[in-house]
Amino acid sequence: MPMIKARFIKSRDGRNHKQQVAELLSRLTAEILHKDPAVTSVLIESADPADWFVGGASTGDQQVGTFYVEVSITEHTNTKDETTEWVRRVYDGMNHLVGPAHEASYVLVHAVDGDAYGYGGLSQNLRWASRQR
Q: Which InterPro entries match (predicted)?
């Protein structure tokens, strides 16, 4: 039941990559982190290259793409190898879609306590406990 947020600069050629980004992130989250696509949510936001700064200069002036992607998952549900692979593959996929991307493009995995995270009004730990009965 991950929540994914993706922010990236708008393409210089005017193409809208929102659907492609959502599909990429959902697919990688299912393949690598083994999360159910039926309860995976993705929020996509694009920004003007003139509004995103890296190293004090806009990415528009630098003529590079950039992005910030974060996912919230329940802690202890994935191995370090899985989250490391997810970070790498998301970076590579986003670089392909909006790049060439500045090296200072970020991918973050939030591994959240199961009592502090949930959906449908139920925490993840409560969902787990109810399946054990």
A: Tautomerase/MIF_sf (IPR014347)
Minimal CA–CA distance to 69: which of 37, 38, 39, 101? 101
List the chain domain ranges: 3-132
Between helix 18-33 and helix 80-98 the angle, nearest 10°, is 160
Compute the distance between CA of residue 27 and CA of residue 4 in angstroms, rounded to an integer.
12
The answer to whether the CB of 12 falls within 8 A of the CB of 46 is no
The model's pTM is 0.90
What superfamily does domain 3-132 belong to in CATH? Macrophage Migration Inhibitory Factor (3.30.429.10)
pLDDT in tens, 71-107: 999 999 999 999 999 999 999 999 999 888 999 999 9
Q: State phi, psi for 73 to the nearest 5 degrees.
A: -135, 165
Token pair 């993706």 in the structure block, residue: 6
**Cβ count within 10 A of residue 38:** 7
Based on the number of CB atoms within 10 Å of its own CB, is 132 exposed (0-12), middle (13-18) or buried (19 or more)? exposed
